[in-house]
Amino acid sequence: MKAKYTLFKFIYLYRKIKILLGFYEEHSPYHIFNLSGAMSEMDFYKKVMPLGYQYNYFSNQEKNQIFNARKLYGDRQIHIRLFNDGEIRGHDELNYEFNAMGHVKGTSMTAINGEEIFKLSEALR
Known about the structure:
Distance between the termini: 24 Å
Structural class: alpha+beta
Number of domains: 1
Strand order of the largest sheet: 1-5-4-3-2
């Protein structure tokens, strides 16, 4: 677990540097819900990991984003983001390992299905 914690510290520092240098994007569409209280990135990860989510290393940084994760299925993925105000945003899209250009173009991006949103809201209580 110590190696994983060290990785999170590195990722946190990397994100902070990107934001300070102005390398971030505005929020993507598909607001899901807001958390009722503050949650650390590690607590968020621990709660979504049992649902099949993993840290998404190759993701653009969005303004005020503190964590992001993805859940793979077939050639698609569900991508969720936690923001510093407790907002959760997410979408369903092509998995970049199967279709890198389709993923980057974002033409396959859709809303997450209701069943998955329910699972997320239950896990993040």
